[in-house]
Known about the structure:
By secondary structure, this protein is mainly alpha-helical. It contains 15 helices and 9 strands. A hairpin with a 2-residue loop joins strand 3 and strand 4 (226-228). The two termini are 39 Å apart.
Amino acid sequence: AVETYFFEELLSIELVGVLNLGHRFNGIKAGQYPLVLQSLRLVDRLFLGRAMNNKWREQEKETDTMAFDVSKGVLAACFQASLDGAKTEAGKERTDSAALIWRDQKLTETEMVNQLTGFMAGVGNSARGYTDCVAMLCEHPQYQERILAELHQVFTGLAPEAAAAAARRGDAVVLGDTVDPEEFTFDRCQQLEFVQCFISECLRVLSPSTSTAPRYCPKEAEIGGYTIPPETKVLINIWGSHYHPEAFSDPFKFDPDRWNASPEGPAAKLKSNPIGYYPFGFGGHRCLGQRVALNNIVLHVAMLVGKYQVAFAETQKRGFAPGCSRWASKVSSIPWTTKLSEQILGFVEPQAGVHVTLQRRPASGAAIPRP
């Protein structure tokens, strides 16, 4: 059995490291959290607490302030090392964010380091999003077959009937085996429309954050008949919106097809900004890493389901537990809570982890498509 949340955090920091810093932290290989991830966790927690409290300088514990400064120094040193590497001859070949920002030369080095801090901020929520999807794959195994059929259509070139038959047999779609790595491209992944529908529904029913980051209202305003006093911090209740019947019919039903305008016919394009759906916020201040996070989750789900049949392990804790979300208990058999992250925004995590077993799929005889 594998505890997925621990693994997903290591995978997330690895992906962010490669994409943004051109660096491998090798946490998965070592089987432990790298120092940079531990530092990110602490900085993330204290930063959000400071954002919600104008008096944090007087009220924050001295030990927390010291830990914040040390952790921030660890991150800054990591980012500075990445920028220094981008300046070298070898760095000219790099395509990660740090190298691209350096070559652009529109920011000071201090501004570059600050930008890279922003890129790294989504590690935790990316891991939570991955874990949501793994949990719901186990809760609804019938969707694994539909995802596998779509993988066969997109990556092995099978017709719909043949792809469905291959999925019923459980034939694998494996990168480097039945699929040429050069074919596993961004454009191909965008054709995985049901995978995107499945992920969108996972992020609706188990959104990693229960509320958006706070917004400051400098003067009195009226919204929907309510008066917002001046100098007020305002948050959006994401979960309240995601489970609101006016935004989503039958909101406690897990239904990926709600994201497809024509479930019985050809897949329709995924709605980009449906009313009431805010896993990444909304408007000009939405999460800057939204597309990166979603593309990473698409890749993750595709590679996982293509290679393995996923199921809850016998060790998985099930049923509602005190202090856990009652709404989540209506869509998932395992307990979810906001009490583990110490985050003021209420980040939702599995109380006892997500423990799964992976059964390798048999190889299929599908030919690798060539250009």
